[in-house]
Amino acid sequence: MRASSHDQSILQFSILRKSGLKIIGRMDEYQGILSGIAQKVYQQYLDREKKILEKETERRQKRKARLDAQQKRISQQESASKARRRKRVKKS
């Protein structure tokens, strides 16, 4: 494979008795595997955590907006109901 184009990623695999090798996935989140001092890539971890935080914040804002809209509708319904009661009392 010298001087040819091929996948240079390091793959995680499992050896099974019946089916042989099973490739689990790429080991992109680690660096220094071949040197014997494997460490998780810290920046990728931070980027992933930032994305998760952004998604959670967005979901939280959407839930809050839905709750605020629901509370506003309930408040408007209660106000309308009170106004109808007042009209009935005045008519009586």
List keywords for this structure.
alpha+beta; two-stranded antiparallel sheet; 92 residues; rod-shaped
In short:
The chain is an alpha+beta fold.
Write the layout of secondary structure elements.
Layout: E1 11-16, E2 20-26, E3 30-31, E4 39-40, H1 42-91
Task: Describe the fold and architecture.
This protein has one helix at residues 42-91, and strands at 11-16, 20-26, 30-31, 39-40. The longest helix has 50 residues, at 42-91. By secondary structure, it is an alpha+beta fold.
- Outline: rod-shaped
Weakly predicted, low-confidence segments? none
Structural class: alpha+beta
Strand order of the largest sheet: 1-2
Radius of gyration: 30 Å
Distance between the termini: 96 Å
Largest sheet: 2 strands, antiparallel
> How many beta-strand elements?
4
Helix content: 40-55%
Order of helices and strands: EEEEH
Strand content: 15-25%
Count of individual helical segments: 1
The average pLDDT score comes to 86
